[in-house]
Amino acid sequence: MAVLLHRLGRSAYRHRKLMLGIWLVVLAALITCAGVFGGKLDDRFTVPGTESQRALDTLGRTLPEASGAGAQIVFTAPEGHHITEAPYKAAIAGTEAVVAKAPQVKAVMGPDLSGAVSADRSTAIVQVQYSVQRAEVRPSSLDVIERAAEAAEKSGLRTSVGGSAYGSNGVHIGPSEIIGVAVAVLVLVVTFGSLLAAGMSLLPALLGVAVGLAGLFALTPAVSISSTAVTLALMLGLAVGIDYILFILTRHRQQLARGTDPQESIALANGTAGSAVVFAGSTVIIALAALSVIGIPFLTVMGLGAAGAVLVAVLAAITLLPALAGFAGTRLTPKPGSKEARRATDPDGSAGRATLGARWVRTVVAKPLLTVLAVAGILVALALPVADLRLALPDNASAPVTATERKAYDTVDDKFGPGFNGPLLVLTETDKGSGAHAGAQAAQQLRDLKGVKAVLPPVPTRDAAQTVIQVIPETGPDSARTDRLVRDIRAAAPDIRDTTGATVAVTGTTAVNIDVSTRLSDSLLPFMAIVVGLSLILLTVVFRSLVVPLKAAVGFLLSVAASLGLVVALFQWGWLADTLGLAHTGPVVSFLPIILIGVLFGLAMDYEVFLVSGMREEWVHTGVARGSVIDGARHSVRVVTAAALIMFTVFAGFFPLDDALIKPIAFALAVGVAIDAFAVRLTLVPAVLALAGRHTWWLPAWLDRVLPDLDVEGTRLQKAPQVQHKEPERAS
């Protein structure tokens, strides 16, 4: 691999104009395709093969208005008045008439038909039903409903609009993300001591992100791509793009400071640091692509989209960076006498004061057992809240308190009960006899179940053998009791069939979301086993050791557990919720743990490779166990610290977004990177390897012969003829 990447870097340097041109042409072509053929983003949650999805698909054919998205217009009378008073009834009726003519609206049901009037007669609900899913509801249709609701306020009513037609707002880049990138630039300037080098790190990363996002948008006509998938691809593409380029560029500048020819320097950097980048990027891609085995299309697209963004970031690092380095030539060389130049020419620090990284590593390994116990104890304490982890998909309760859908949700919860915000649909179907009669009997049995607040009369579909029954739970859509009610209805299905002759299936938005969360919960441990097993295999191959992969796997598990513990404490328990401006606390986003595991696995392997490869090089040269840990780590501490800070600031820049899906994911990734880089890789790893001593690098001889040699450190480059016969070329 190292020899191949060396040739690639050398070729990109020599043909820099062609390489840059290829990237720009690809970007222009993708932007054109996205502009001409690009479709809409699709935020539907579907779970193929589940009862709720099968029933929903059936309703899509026999009663489209029941399977589509719904909106609620909530009317509240002034204090001291009743919503049933004549002026307010007239205003509501007028609103119904206007809304019925709105685009895509299939049916409108006012309080006179549905009886949706609160017990104190202060509030009423108008139900608006679409025949299409939320992702297909046009903003113009919602605008008509919102304007009609505002018009009703002239009569003195207070109104708000909500329902399942509202949801995640998707991608919107704002000041916080720009600040995150600005902080990343500042870190790069401090790390390199050069604006040119900082810009050289940022430019290819941004170009790679642009190519990745344009590619996603260009695929929208053929593939259902969600707004969350685009945001995750943006976060990951930007973060890993800067980090990967940082690793290669740091090695390039060190070699330039030692007098290496620019062309040969970037080729060597591509062959050594670039090999580690390809390995680290591959682990991220594999982990993200593995999300497709769970069988949820939304998550599959999210994982593959993010994996594609990481792939583009790797390609930009090993092809575009060498080309841009060709344009810069010797101008990337650290100035003589600068800290960068001194670090490159005096790596042991013998001529001057030891670096902060070197002092930190010495402190850590001075009392390794104490360090291990302290760090492990802190991480285990942070992980304790995971025992109370509950998973669910967010609803309008997670929207900002100023949003109309949040106001509608809170009013319905207060005046009607939380279950009205997440009704269940029960589809009944009989093989013979009257579907209406069987549906009425089934409704009666459903009323007797624990946790049911109300059961509405059955509604016939276009199929005479079917009816749809709306069941109102006593609890909200994200409550564990609602989950239990869905299970109870399914458990009662055989008895209902025996009594009524009708099969029953629970569906609707709430049931689909519960099934999504259940499948994700069931997939969590198998997915974790796959990721941990993969890390053990990959690191054993790379480092020819048993201790290193075992230690890395345990450290990774501690990082994930501690990160999830902090997520539970903040987003589920509500610790510091007011301080951090959280609109709502409750169950954790159901796919967050799997996303965190997949992403953090790749990043952990990233830092592990860059940190431990230096230790292995020292061990091979010196054979001194503890000395190789100290000397090998201190060369990588600075670049790993800079990479982690950049990754942290990029992820943290997405935390202020008022998006119930993105906010917790951004928080989890930010704290996960910080914990894994600083607590595990830069503290726990050196301490454990110092404790293990010479046993760190032990591998059974038979296993050493069987395993392939990936040569991530690039040792074969010393024997490659193309390294020895370079062709110096003046930079343009």
Give your account of this protein's structure:
The protein has about 725 residues and is α+β, with helices and mostly antiparallel strands. Helices cover about 65% and strands about 10% of the residues. The chain has 26 helices and 11 strands. The chain has helices at about 1-15, 15-35, 50-60, 65, 85-100, 110-115, 140-150, 175-190, 195-220, 225-255, 260-290, 295-330, 340-345, 355-365, 370-385, 405-415, 435-445, 480-500, 510-545, 545-570, 575-580, 590-620, 625-650, 660-690, 700-705, 720-725; strands at about 70-75, 105-110, 125-130, 160, 390, 425-430, 450-455, 460, 465-475, 500-505, 590. Strands 6, 7, 8, 9 and 10 form a 5-stranded antiparallel beta sheet that branches. A 4-stranded antiparallel beta sheet has the order 2-3-1-4, with helices on both faces. It is elongated, with a radius of gyration of 30 Å. It is found in: Cell membrane. Pfam families: MMPL. This is MMPL family transporter. It is a multi-pass membrane protein. InterPro entries: MMPL_dom (IPR004869), Mycobact_MmpL (IPR050545), SSD (IPR000731).
Strand content: 5-15%
Distance, first to last CA: 29 Å
* Percentage of residues in helical conformation: 55-70%
Low-confidence stretches: 721-732
Number of helices: 26
Which whole number gives the mean pLDDT?
85
Lay out the secondary structure:
Blueprint lengths: L1 H13 L1 H22 L13 H12 L1 H4 L2 E7 L9 H15 L4 E5 L1 H4 L8 E8 L8 H14 L5 E5 L12 H18 L2 H24 L8 H31 L4 H28 L7 H32 L10 H7 L10 H11 L1 H16 L7 E2 L11 H12 L8 E7 L4 H13 L4 E4 L3 E2 L5 E8 L6 H21 L1 E6 L1 H35 L3 H26 L4 H4 L7 E2 L2 H31 L2 H28 L9 H31 L8 H6 L14 H4 L8
Parallel strand pairs: 5-11
Antiparallel strand pairs: 1-3, 1-4, 2-3, 6-9, 6-10, 7-9, 8-9
Helix pairs in contact: 1-11, 1-12, 2-9, 2-12, 5-7, 8-9, 8-23, 9-10, 9-12, 10-11, 10-12, 10-13, 10-23, 11-12, 11-22, 14-23, 14-24, 15-20, 15-24, 17-18, 19-20, 19-22, 20-22, 20-24, 22-23, 22-24, 23-24
